[in-house]
Amino acid sequence: MTSLRKDWDTYFMDIAFMVSTRSRCPRRHVGTVLVQGKKLLGTAYNGAPMGVQDCSEAGCMIVEEFTAPPDDSPSSEMIKKQRCIRTIHAEQNLLLFTDRVDREGSVVYVTDQPCWTCANMLANSGIVEIVYHRSYPKDHEKVASLMRQRGILFRQIANYNAPPDTEVQDGS
């Protein structure tokens, strides 16, 4: 009996989703992996700094921001966005816990498209590609533009299904 092997994108994205299950954030679990060639070099997930109570223990530290609507929006009302500032993003943790020499020429697989701040950090990290599953429409165009300028391949996996029991609905 022969079984079908998963393609590399699916294999590494599955690992990123499994890593995301370590997150204790009630709003969103994000996982990321660093890969060079076909070798896994590091993993990380979103969460509070080590030794500090996380959101499940101390509650989310929510800040409200107001931003202008997109240029093509018929509304001129400011958009209210809430975000938690207790957690370090998965991409930031990945950069904190891997070495620059390992990142040179590597690929980052991440469950969610990086936000603008994480994208800026990844753009300077030495990686050559970012592969993600869930989109982040708020920052998509400017992140995609940044990656084009830096020559970093930036792509979403189409027709991907995360492993069972690994996705948390966005609570924001």
From TrEMBL:
Transcription found in the keyword field: no
Matching SUPFAM superfamilies: Cytidine deaminase-like
GO cellular component labels: cytoplasm
A UniProt-annotated Pfam family: dCMP_cyt_deam_1
Presence of the UniProt keyword Cell membrane in the record: no
Keywords for the protein's UniProt record, in alphabetical order: Hydrolase, Metal-binding, Zinc
GO biological process terms held by the UniProt record: pyrimidine nucleotide metabolic process
CDD domains xref list: deoxycytidylate_deaminase
Binding site for Zn(2+): H89, C115, C118
Ranges where the CMP/dCMP-type deaminase domain occurs: 7-154
Residues annotated as catalytic: E91
Needed co-factor(s): Zn(2+)
GO molecular function, one term: zinc ion binding
Family affiliation: Belongs to the cytidine and deoxycytidylate deaminase family.
Designated name of the protein: Cytidine/deoxycytidylate deaminase family protein
Source organism of this protein record: Candidatus Cohnella colombiensis
